[in-house]
Amino acid sequence: MPNFAIPFDASSVQPASRTLLPAGSYVGHIVHTEFRPTKNGLGKYLLVELEVLDGEYAGRRLYDRINLVNPNPTAQQIAEQTLAAICHAVGKVQVISSEELHHIPLTVEIRVEPAKGGYEESNSVKRYSARGSAGPATSAVPAPRPAPSAPAVAPAPAAGVPWKRRT
What we know:
Layout: E1 24-37, E2 44-52, E3 61-69, H1 73-90, E4 106-113, E5 122-130
Antiparallel strand pairs: 1-2, 1-4, 2-3, 4-5
């Protein structure tokens, strides 16, 4: 068992008390990644450690698990889509090492997961996007904007097709 170099007196240190981050979007960056085996030993996930960069919660850490090697093809597909979103968000669409994704600001949208299965409420990553972006990072190339002289009126819906407003 490891010994401390000097005795540690816990009476002089306030115990850590972590509160959850409120659901929302935060500017952060990846500070550490590492592959770990899944609980059942049949796959591997990429543990992603993120740090909030600004605002009231600067310095706080968040974690995500990306199940990149999994016998369930749906789980693996979701993981690949998540990794692709990170890559697009940081502007690196082809990577050899997860370290290429470190220390590049991106927007992380988190949610609060309710208590479940004996575990307390927790934060989880909902999506990754480019810094300053409100939606998911799905393309490194921004969509073209209509010319300034184009009318701002939407076309009439086709007959028999319910019209949905695009946001």
